[in-house]
Amino acid sequence: MDLKSLVNSIKNFEGITRKNLIKDVTGLLEDTYNIAGRTILGFGDDASALEIDNGQVVLLAADGMWGKLMEADPWWAGYCSVLVNVNDIAAMGGIPIGMTNVISTQDKEICAQIMDGINEGVKKFGVPMVGGHVHPDAPYNSLDVSITGIMNRDDIITSCGARPGDKVLVAIDLEGEIHPQFHLNWDTTTMKSPELVQAQILAMNELAQKHLLTAGKDISNPGTLGTLGMLLETSNVGATVELGMIPRNIAVNWEDWLKLYPGSGFVLTAPEGNVSPITQILEKVNVTTRVVGHIIPEKKLYLTSEGDNEVVFDFCTDRITGIHDENP
Amino acid sequence: MDLKSLVNSIKNFEGITRKNLIKDVTGLLEDTYNIAGRTILGFGDDASALEIDNGQVVLLAADGMWGKLMEADPWWAGYCSVLVNVNDIAAMGGIPIGMTNVISTQDKEICAQIMDGINEGVKKFGVPMVGGHVHPDAPYNSLDVSITGIMNRDDIITSCGARPGDKVLVAIDLEGEIHPQFHLNWDTTTMKSPELVQAQILAMNELAQKHLLTAGKDISNPGTLGTLGMLLETSNVGATVELGMIPRNIAVNWEDWLKLYPGSGFVLTAPEGNVSPITQILEKVNVTTRVVGHIIPEKKLYLTSEGDNEVVFDFCTDRITGIHDENP
């Protein structure tokens, strides 16, 4: 495989490039994101954190489903709306406690399929959908879901804590299958028990409580390297990653594998001494975990493979979200 | 004025009839809405309540903006997305702590106007927008916002606690103006100081902490009588209301007044002995508060005026949301 063309394909991947608008939008809210003095984490993380008065934080996240997903498979869109939100809370090390949704559709059959998918997601992940809003007269189909979680303030896993010398770990459940219509959806949950799926979420909470990580982020639409890129950008550091060390199900080629959205997948950073307990906690719940490289001070993401070396992102010139730690 | 034609106009008001789909949607989630055992309040209230372990609850609500509002005045849609969500938390007696949003638009100018409106709402209500999701490639403009609040579990103001004999109160800030493009938007906040607007929200928290109410709900798209109808439906009771007692700004005719969405407006129920302290707390923050009638066991909403008497809703045959207390 040609490393250069793989890297070019990743750099131009829509899952990454469509993140470019984020800073344009969040930039408008920079002056007010901490207006009440509770905001510990604002933009740039999988979820935001707001302090409450018992040493805990409330975590908030929201996701909209891609229109293409809604049109092709409303059930799957409903199911995934739960999955992606739960993973946003898990990535912070939090406990997801409830969700709300806004559905726009004129088609009762599509609405029923979406709700059926949501209901299956609720049962699988054990997080209730407790409210929301219906637009019965919208001229389009859309589904937006938000989630709230809770955790101890001192335990939060952020995207901004990676430091030079830390190991970079990729943790992915390798046991799954590609969705028949979406070749970048790596489904690892529909075929598994709620107990195992929920144990995967709680494993991240255990890593958080034990303070084993310096940073973490759930692998989402930008794929494994895009998600790592966002973490590096937020942390103001770089990394070097050896392609062959990234855990992969060999049924999927590298190009697709690096772009796909896994049902349970995280990029993590940690001091070398913590790698062993981290790996044990995640592998106990079927999440394969490998050290794939390390953090460097130079603000670039290098991908190496069999002696070749390519720059995936140079954060001095490229931007993914444009959000940095010193300018939240 | 002809009471019968006024009542007919209210019964057929789109702001009420479009609530009919709610039960079809929430019905699908009835089995799972309390899957984790934390859900104290699910559907049928302005916000849902999830128990956390310090005697508090986390409140969740979500609202989507009407497409018509987005097209005519994106700034106002952004501003209102904050207002309606904050009012949902206020109606429960809670403290709003943070919001997330999902914006879909291809038009950067519209997006900037929406965000500008949101930012103004954040400053006015003192509740930060801490995260969200942008669809830069959606073929439509939409804005969905969710909010999280917090309060003591024992203080929650619900929609389901109204009991026969309780007084029905309507509380509305009468000092405002009709939006130039939307004759049912009664703006009472853009021209007021953040201090007063936030004091109105905190007044509801004071009513909650003092346990002065048996039920309460913020007046939203269904208007004053539609919102009262939803409260009665959820509480499994009826009421009789004297039209002339409802606080009104006489610049607006009755038909529009009963349908409009006020910037700060609530329907409340309480034992007669609590009417005086409730009124004092609300009038201190410019919210005019009047007893307009009382709760009856018969499941109908009667509207009386100058000796005439009409049935607005008969909950044995009509339904607004279809959500009742015994079947959440």
UniProtKB/TrEMBL annotation, chains A, B:
Residues 44-150 form the PurM-like N-terminal domain. Residues 164-304 form the PurM-like C-terminal domain. It holds the Pfam family AIRS_C. One of its GO terms (biological process) is thiamine biosynthetic process. SUPFAM superfamilies: PurM C-terminal domain-like (SSF56042), PurM N-terminal domain-like (SSF55326). It comes from Methanobacterium formicicum. GO terms for molecular function: thiamine-phosphate kinase activity. This is Methanogenesis marker protein 2. It comes from the Archaea.
